[in-house]
Amino acid sequence: MSEQHAPMNIAELGRGLEPSLRRALVRVASVETLLVACDYDGTLAPIVDDPAEARPQPRAMEVLGELAGTAGTWASLVSGRSLQQLIELSGPPATVGLVGSHGAEHLAPLGSNGRVGSDPAVASGDPGVSGHHDAESAALLEALIADVADEVSRLPGSRLEPKPVGVAFHYRQADQSVAAKTADALIERLSARPGVHVRVGKMVAEFAVDGADKGQALLRLIGQTGPDATVFVGDDVTDEDGFAVLGEGDLGIKVGAGETAASHRVASPADVVEVLSVLAQLRRAGAGIE
Ligand SMILES: [Mg+2]
C-alpha cells in the first residue's frame, strides 16, 4: 500500500505497473481535460457473496474524489446498480458523478469547473431518470418481476433485485448446476417478450424495460464533460459496451480474466485503486513524465 501523502519521486510513480499501462497513464494524464469513469462491483469493490455488502476497496472513493478535485478532471461511477444503492454502498464524494442502472439514472460529475451539463435534472442535483415510465412499460416490468420472483421461490440461494427500470436475477449463492440452467431458461423466455432488454453478467441476469447500456452512458458523460481523453475501467460483460465506444486517445482497463475490447488489464480492485492513485498523482504533478 502506498503512503497517502508521503513525498514522492515523480519519476518513480507507477513503476510497479505494467510498463505499457504506465505509459498509457502518463499519456492520458498529460491531456488538458480528462474523464475517468469506473464501474463499481468487481472494479472498485471486490465481489462478495451478498451484493448488499459490496463495499469499496480502501481509498477507492478518496482517490476518485482526488481525481475529481484536480483541475480539468472529471470522475464518475458507471454502474448497473440503482443510483440509490450505488450511493448507499459506495459513499461517493460529492464531486464524483454517478451513473446507475447502466445509464438509465445519472448525476453528472462535478469537476473543478462546477457541475457540467445543461440537463435540468442534473442542474438541480436530482437524479435524472431517462426512459419511459408509461403504463405499458410499468405493466411489463411488473410481469418481469413476477416471473423472476417465481424462479427465485424455487431456487434456494437465488435473489431478486428490483431496479427502477428492470429486475435482476442473482444466482451466485445458488446450486450452480441448477442455477445456470434456470438462468438460461429465464433469459430465453423473457428475451422473447417485446420491449425486454436482457443483460447478462457474472452470476446475474437482468431484465430491463429500458435499453440503456454502459456505452451510451459513457457517451453521455463524454458529451457532458467534453474531455480530451477518457479512461474507463470495468470487470464484467456489460462493461464491454463502454470499452467499445472508446477512441484512440482513450484508455480502457479490464479488471480480471475474460475476453475484452479493453487495451489494458489489471488483476483486481486493489490494482484499480493503485492505477487511479498513480493517475491522480501524475495529474496533480502536471504530467510530462517519461
Ligand atoms: Mg462490475
Automatic annotation (TrEMBL):
It catalyses: alpha,alpha-trehalose 6-phosphate + H2O = alpha,alpha-trehalose + phosphate. Its EC number is 3.1.3.12. One of its GO terms (molecular function) is metal ion binding. Pathway: Glycan biosynthesis; trehalose biosynthesis. Pfam families: Trehalose_PPase (PF02358). GO terms for biological process: trehalose biosynthetic process. Keywords: Hydrolase, Magnesium, Metal-binding. It comes from the Bacteria. It is an enzyme of class 3 (hydrolase). Residues 112-133 are annotated as: Disordered. Its cofactor is Mg(2+). Removes the phosphate from trehalose 6-phosphate to produce free trehalose. Belongs to the trehalose phosphatase family. This is Trehalose 6-phosphate phosphatase. It comes from Candidatus Neomicrothrix parvicella RN1.
